[in-house]
Amino acid sequence: MKPFTLAVVAATVAAGILGGCHHKADPAKPGDGSDSGPAILAKRVQVSWGIQQATASADVYLQTTDETGAQVSHGLGTFPGQCTAVTAVASMNALIAVDCIDGPRGLELQVTAQQGRITVLRMHVDQGVTPDPMAREEVTSFPVPPGAGVQAHP
Length: 154
Hints:
With 154 residues, the protein is mainly beta. The chain contains 1 helix and 9 strands. It has one helix at residues 3-19; strands at residues 44-53, 57-66, 71-80, 82-86, 96-102, 105-114, 117-126, 137-143, 149-152.
């Protein structure tokens, strides 16, 4: 290599090493977007019941509301009897529940959320008999945004 070429190469390497960073980096602060990983967006979906009671039956809907306030109503069907929201059974992983009672018999709809899905389950109930959680049947299921928290609407 010629001495002039060697000097240019050495000056270029030195400039790259010494001049490559003109300021001292501040340590990253949580949530300031300075890291190179993907941004995590907080997502929330609230679930609640919509019930249109008629004389001998009721149309039941599951209403979902996201963090922007957008609401979607999922029709679940028409069920015999009087339908009312009841306290969900936590041991069955239910977030919210509604009972539709017609005399001594009826059914309970329960909403669960796991593995990125909201699932509505139906369970038959008889007055004076402890319901069997293993006898629940799926009514419908739909996905929620990845990482979204699902919570009961008060």
